[in-house]
Design goal:
The complex is a heterodimer. Chain A is of the alpha+beta class. Chain A folds into 3 domains: about 1-270, Cytochrome c-like domain (Cytochrome Bc1 Complex, Chain D, domain 2, Orthogonal Bundle), CATH 1.10.760.10; about 290-535, Immunoglobulin-like, CATH 2.60.40; about 545-575. Helices cover about 25% and strands about 20% of the residues of chain A. Chain A has 10 helices and 18 strands. A 10-stranded mixed barrel of chain A has the order 5-8-9-15-14-12-11-10-16-18. A two-stranded antiparallel sheet of chain A has the order 1-2. A two-stranded antiparallel ribbon of chain A has the order 3-4. In chain A, a hairpin with a 5-residue loop joins strand 12 and strand 13 (about 460). By secondary structure, chain B is mainly α. Chain B folds into 2 domains: about 1-110, no CATH class; about 175-320, Cytochrome Bc1 Complex, Chain D, domain 2. Chain B contains 10 helices and 4 strands, in the order ααααααββββαααα. In chain B, the strands form 2 sheets. Chain B has a two-stranded antiparallel sheet with strand order 1-2. A two-stranded antiparallel ribbon of chain B has the order 3-4. In chain B, a hairpin with a 2-residue loop joins strand 3 (about 200) and strand 4 (about 205). In chain B, helix 3 (about 60-75) runs antiparallel to helix 4 (about 90-110) and helix 9 crosses helix 10 (about 305-320). Chain B starts with a helix and ends in a 22-residue tail after the last helix. The model of chain B is unreliable at about 335-343 (pLDDT under 50). The chains are: A alpha+beta, B mainly alpha. Chains A and B meet through helix 2, strand 7 and helix 10 of A and helix 5, helix 6, helix 7 and helix 8 of B.
Chain lengths: ~575, ~350
């Protein structure tokens, strides 16, 4: 083995140099690293404790968990590895696999092992994983390994000197140029018109399992994000190397390294900056949805200035709200609500397609009504009327009866504490998932259902609905937008409608159904209970109290001066004792 | 007075230059013995004292007191980027510290009659108007600050509410799973072949070390149950409790309360297997009110798993984390004070 390698190395080295002259996008040509057999015993121990449960006894990606995961665990047998620095179709370097194990694959069930396993463990288990590859040989003389050129910028650096964790300050020219490259190379065919991965519903991986394109606006779910979600290097690497086993090719011949960085700048600019929880590599949920007080009626149009807010978190340094936004009366915030599969009761959902919702709210005293604008990404919507898409808000049905932190059970309530569910079922009009991107979006055919839940198996439609309306709805480039409206108080003859008080923390949660994946009833995505609060108008005392206090204090100062002077006078006169 | 004014300008100048020019260098090099934020603070203190000594400025006592108080404020203040005292302290603690610091400053001022008179002098002169400009500035500024403070005080804010819950509630005396009633006290895991997790081959006791799930499942009974328990775990539980059993599964961030971290010494390591059996069987809805059952995503697993599967998955959790369950102590059984509370 070693003899083989040694005798071939000069030849391959020469070939590599020749290749470098021909193909400027490759920096280093070489051969795969052979398996270090002395580490296999150690690696096996690690593998059979930590990895076997998903990746299987023979590394076929068929462990006990495999059938309940989307995407499925990696099948090692073919030697197809996604995240590498090597050319399309080639085997990975050891360091690529080690980095994957250390950082995990965000957006999948593969966790980061860097804090659990030692470096020695990781190096050993990489060797063991390589030994599970059957269809290819790490010492085969036909196996090449060409390291990709990233325009001279190695891991962590980028042409603009932009730094983590949020990688801001990338020039607009690069982003605009990147958008042209995006259009020219038809990235939208898979990734959709605005990069939400909504281009192609029919893709399969090398094993015939369904696969979807990455959603660029949720970069924390990029498999290769290496726990540094906003780093544009991740994107340049992917464009340069492609993703083995998937329809994602590499573009090293079509796009020069400089242009790849520009494309990365564009892709990177799409991802809203949120604070990422380092433990789970997901944005942190906003547990309180603030409903903004509105003078006069609320404009029921999501394009109105009332409903605009930057998606990035204004609490992050460098992302403070622009003066222009604030002076134009901008007062809104997007609230990020994490979603997960309903895996507790009844028919469980292990593969939810929707990871999060973005929520914004306003209320109007004049109208006595509250509005919630709920948005979420979903690549493909249903075309089967039997399984419409759905989004719902869940409230405690009898808020006034709850004591302290008490709430109904978060999945459709319980027998003692009912919930009030506002559900919007919808089908997209004139839509087919294989359509070309449609810039103006699609209208939705919505029907509202108001449900009473007394447990996941005791959900019924209200006999006297409380008048929930969907005032506007849209499906636009892989994003659903639905605006709920209801009056704060209702007639409520059956005590089934939530009566919404002002300036009170009210529990609320969300359900979502992907009709394309045949989700229905309790087979859905859910959030936990969060709170919402109707912020009252600013108190009038804000206008008169500060000046009153200031004047009063000024009076006190005058009194102090008088007293001090009088005391001094008395000391001088000798009347002070 | 002129010297005091000069001292004020020089001192503030030095402090600002150090804060913006030198502090970032110290923060970058952390954490080393000499290049850290505390070293920077010492440097700041020595610079402030040093520049006044070298220039023989000897400012009036009032100004000295202001420097001392200001340095203390700079040290404790949790509301700046790159706080000196790390981690930043909560504001209640900050107020307490600053009160103590203020008292200390006063002790320094009031060492004797003369220092206190020196301290008081400029203040009285400002109030009585001997320092005319100072009086105008102070008397105009203070009411504005009071007004601003009032505005901030009455401006309504709505922070995220905090909720508390009991993590390990007291278990019931008995629990009924799949139609059979179990008394939790003294209940053992039927699949725990050996107390010390050893196994037996031909009558001799051997450590389980070096035996693998799946591969050795046929030959070693204990490993067989571990494999079966792990299979259940990785089909049902890892979504929340995580592939590493550390409570960081794919859906863990969605739910509140967050799923239990079994690797943590405060969870299964201090509980009995019978407690786990009850918690797994009854899930979130089986919790008492103080544990906020309404938000727990933990399923009542008796709806999805058999009794045997529940015991096996409990066994697996201990095998994977390397913890040993708390056991039932015969001698102190009458006390019943163990394993997450008695009765």
């Amino acid at each position: 083995m070693t003899i083989n390698k040694k005798s071939f190395k000069p030849v391959l080295g020469f070939l590599g140099m020749a290749l470098m002259l021909i193909l400027p996008s490759i920096v280093l040509a070489g051969v795969p690293e052979p398996i270090q057999k002395d580490k296999l015993e150690h690696g096996k121990k690690v593998y059979f404790k930590r990895c076997v449960w998903c990746h299987g006894v023979e590394g076929g990606g068929d462990g006990p968990s495999a059938d309940r995961l989307f995407t499925r665990p990696r099948n090692f047998i073919q030697g197809t590895f996604k995240i590498r620095w090597t050319d399309s179709g080639q085997l990975p370097r050891d360091i690529d696999l080690e980095t994957t194990i250390k950082n995990g694959l965000p957006g999948s069930a593969m966790p980061a092992w860097g804090e659990v396993l030692s470096d020695t463990d990781i190096k050993a288990v990489v060797q063991f994983v390589k030994s599970l590859v059957q269809d290819r040989d790490f010492v085969d003389e036909d196996e090449d390994m060409d390291l990709m050129d990233f325009g001279g910028h190695q891991n962590g650096a980028n042409p603009w000197g932009s730094v983590g964790p949020y990688y801001l300050g990338i020039p607009d020219e690069a982003i605009t140029a990147g958008k042209d490259i995006f259009i020219k190379n038809k990235c939208f065919e898979c990734h959709g018109g605005e990069g939400r991965g909504d281009g192609n519903p029919t893709m399969k991986d090398d094993w015939g399992f369904p696969i979807v394109a990455a959603d660029w606006q949720q970069c924390w779910n990029f498999r290769g994000s290496r726990r540094d979600a906003f780093d544009p290097f991740n994107i340049v690497r992917t464009i340069s190397t492609g993703i083995n086993g998937t329809p994602m090719p590499n573009f090293r011949e079509k796009i020069t390294p400089e242009e790849r960085w520009k494309l990365a700048a564009f892709v990177n600019s799409l991802c809203p900056r949120k604070k990422i929880d380092p433990l789970v590599n997901k944005p942190i949920t906003d547990f309180l949805i603030k409903s903004k007080y509105t003078k006069g009626p609320v404009v029921p149009n999501m394009d109105d200035a009332m409903w605009q807010a930057p998606e990035s978190d204004n609490r992050l340094p460098g992302l403070e709200r622009s003066e222009e936004y604030v002076t134009n009366g901008g007062d809104q915030y997007w609230h990020y609500i994490a979603m997960g599969g309903q895996i507790t009761r009844g028919e469980r959902n292990f593969k939810p397609k929707v990871d999060n919702l973005w929520v914004m709210s306003r209320w109007s005293e004049e109208e006595n009504a509250i509005y919630y604008l709920v948005e979420f990404h979903n690549r493909f919507l249903s075309t089967d009327p039997e399984f419409p898409d759905g989004i719902a808000m869940q409230w405690p049905g009898q808020l006034e009866d709850l004591f302290g932190a008490e709430k109904p059970y978060f999945i459709y309530g319980d027998s003692k504490k009912p919930v009030d569910v506002w559900k919007a079922n919808f089908m997209v009009k004139d839509y087919n998932p294989t359509n070309a991107p449609k810039a103006e979006g699609y209208d939705l055919d919505v029907s509202v259902q108001e449900l009473v839940g007394l447990g996941f198996d005791a959900v019924s439609e209200k006999e006297t609905p409380g008048g929930v309306e969907i005032v506007q709805s849209k499906f636009h480039q892989g994003r659903v937008k639905v605006m709920f409206k209801r009056s704060l108080t209702t007639e409520n003859p059956d005590k089934t409608d939530v009566q919404i008080p002002v300036a009170t923390y009210i529990p609320v949660s969300f359900f979502q159904w992907s009709g394309w994946d045949k989700e229905h009833d309790e087979h859905m995505a859910i959030s936990t209970w969060v709170y919402t609060i109707l912020e009252p108008a600013l108190p009038a005392s804000l206008n008169y109290m500060p000046p009153i206090m200031a004047v009063a204090f000024f009076g006190f100062q005058m009194w102090l001066v008088r007293m001090t002077k009088r005391t001094r006078q008395m000391v001088k006169d000798g009347t002070w004792k | 007075m002129n010297k005091t004014l000069l001292s004020f300008i020089v001192t503030v100048g030095v402090a600002v230059a150090l804060h913006f020019g030198v502090k970032p260098m110290f923060l970058e090099g952390e954490p080393t013995m000499f290049i850290n934020r505390y070293a920077f603070f010492l440097l700041l203190v020595f610079s402030v004292v040093g520049i006044n000594l070298i220039l023989r400025l000897s400012p009036v006592m009032t100004m000295k007191a202001a420097y001392i108080w200001g340095l203390g404020f700079y040290f404790y203040n949790p509301y700046q980027a790159g706080t000196i005292l790390t981690p930043p302290i909560p504001w209640t603690l900050f107020i307490t510290y600053m009160m103590l610091w203020t008292i200390g400053t006063f002790l320094y001022i009031s060492q004797d009659r003369d220092t206190f008179a020196e301290f008081r002098g400029p203040i009285v002169k400002t109030v009585t108007g001997e320092y005319k400009i100072a009086r105008y500035i102070v008397f105009a500024l203070l009411p504005v600050m009071v007004g601003w403070g009032t505005y901030n005080f009455i401006y309504p804010s709505y922070p995220e509410p905090v909720e508390l819950r009991t993590v390990h509630p007291a278990p019931p005396a008995t629990t009924k799973v799949h139609g059979k009633t179990y008394a939790l006290e003294g209940l053992q895991n039927p699949f725990r072949v050996d107390e010390q997790d050893n196994y037996y081959e031909g009558g001799t006791q051997l450590p389980v070390e070096g035996k693998f799930p799946f591969i050795d499942a046929e030959s070693v009974e204990y490993i067989k149950y571990v494999t079966e328990g792990g299979t259940v775990f990785f089909q049902n539980c890892h979504y929340c409790h995580g592939d590493q059993l550390n409570g960081l599964g794919m859906f863990s961030h969605v739910f509140n309360p967050t799923p239990a971290n079994f690797v943590d010494p405060g969870t299964i390591a201090m509980l009995r297997e019978s407690f786990l059996f009850w918690r797994v069987s009854k899930g979130g809805p089986g919790l008492p009110n103080e544990s906020t059952p309404w938000s727990s995503a933990m399923p009542p697993w008796e709806e999805h798993l058999t009794t045997e599967q529940i015991w096996k998955v409990v066994l697996f959790e201990y095998w994977y984390t390397g913890w040993h369950p708390r056991t039932f102590d015969e001698e102190s059984s009458s006390g019943g004070e163990e394993g997450g509370g008695g009765h």
